[in-house]
Amino acid sequence: MTVKQPYNPHYDPLKDTSPGEGVDYAPSYWRYHAGPPPEDDGPVTDDMEADVVLIGAGFTGLATAMFLAREHGIKAVVLEANQIGWGCTSRNGGQGHLAWGRLSRSQWVRKWGVDMARQLHANSLEGFEVFKSLTQDPEVDCEPQPLGNLLIAHSPQAMQHLEAESRLCNNILGYRTRTLDRATVHRDFMGDQESHGAMLEPEGIAVQPLKLAYSYARIARRHGARIHTSSPVQHWTTENGIHYLQTPGGTVKARAVGIATAGYTSPNLHSLTAYRNMPIMANSVWTRTLTDDEIEACGLRSTILTTDTRKLRYYYRLLPEKRLQIGTRSAISGADAQNARHLDVVHAAIARKFPALAGIETPWFSHGWMDISHDMMPRIVQPDPKQQIFYSQGYSGNGVSFSAYASRQLAALIAGQSLPERHLPIFNSPLPAHPLRPIRRMGQHLLYKYFQVLDKVS
Ligand SMILES: Cc1cc2nc3c(=O)[nH]c(=O)nc-3n(C[C@H](O)[C@H](O)[C@H](O)COP(=O)(O)OP(=O)(O)OC[C@H]3O[C@@H](n4cnc5c(N)ncnc54)[C@H](O)[C@@H]3O)c2cc1C
Description:
With 458 residues, this protein is of the alpha/beta class. Helices cover 31% and strands 20% of the residues. Helix 2 packs across helix 10 (402-414) and helix 3 (105-112) runs antiparallel to helix 4 (114-136). The N and C termini lie far apart (48 Å). Residues 51-413 form the FAD dependent oxidoreductase domain.
């Protein structure tokens, strides 16, 4: 690990041209808890050649390198601007959901009809197995909590919505979800005082995300991949189908390139990815270790991954080592990220949900930039069949589990395989652009105000 610059909390993908060079990790609990990062190959120090280059060493870049090496014998070179898992990968809630993008299953049905929703659901189950088997792999150390997924209704109307969603899951998709009343939530899971009931999904695995990423990195390198940290791609040219990726230490020449830069994608990286996702900030806090009395007072009986139904939703869980992790969306720009009012928003939620924890110390507070696709669905594609350029992006806040499957598919595409699932909407088109993109952030301010009102009244 080579640190060249301190962490900059004000970095903003819509304002800055690059996520930096050798920037230190964000101050997340995962970083503290995971211990030292695995060995990497240091910065690029000379011109070099590679068959395949992956840009970005988050879940996607690392797992794609791992699958390329393990399943296709391709020893890729990963170029990471900063550190292994530096982006969202080291800052998320570690919630591995059965979710492809951000749309609910009823939205799939409305958008594509029952048949396609069934196919997407079957595909998501198959993909979730990729994630599940990695969390059980003896070479992977990620502290998995395979307890399912609890969606807590924050209002009576939200509970009605969950009941309808659960009926759809059971009757149309054959996915055995259950609804629970408030008393059952309190008795079996947690004493969240905002709960009006919940929907329990059988699939859902919470992990220590940075440990998972470190495991991907170790396996990838053991199978021959190289991971160059502190090596941002600053300029990209293509001549006769060969890519030249310029980093501060040298130019890397490659036959094929996989882009795995998610919400940290600079608009100037490549025209095929410019403005194809909307970077949206999410935050997270971790409390000090809770006492047994506090755990009892909050009725925290499970380490299940939990989300509430607000538009500006909270995601939270009791970690196995007895800390509460909780986060939401609040700040919009990098310049405003450290404003104390965003931390206050999370503290207020802790106090509402678990009054015994009002005012508790939260030694870790960090944020990251999620890659929200303009239609809320991710893509794993070769956007231009004439160019050996591939990407997997647009996870829309659900990348912990999805990135495992997406990376396996991305590796297969890069290796030249044609995917049998290519008719599904996550494979058959590039990420869409958005006509209002230049003013979307202005719209986001208004939308957050609207969501805050909606979350109070419905
Ligand atoms: C606070 C927060 C909470 C979240 N919680 C959850 C959750 O509980 N469950 C869930 O499923 N998802 C969650 N997510 C989303 C999830 O973390 C992401 O979907 C996932 O980590 C994306 O992984 P990635 O590898 O695609 O991208 P990232 O981990 O963001 O990695 C992108 C990497 O690309 C590098 N890069 C960018 N440009 C260049 C360049 N030019 N050259 C070289 N390198 C470059 C960056 O430095 C970065 O390391 C959360 C996100 C945040 C911010």
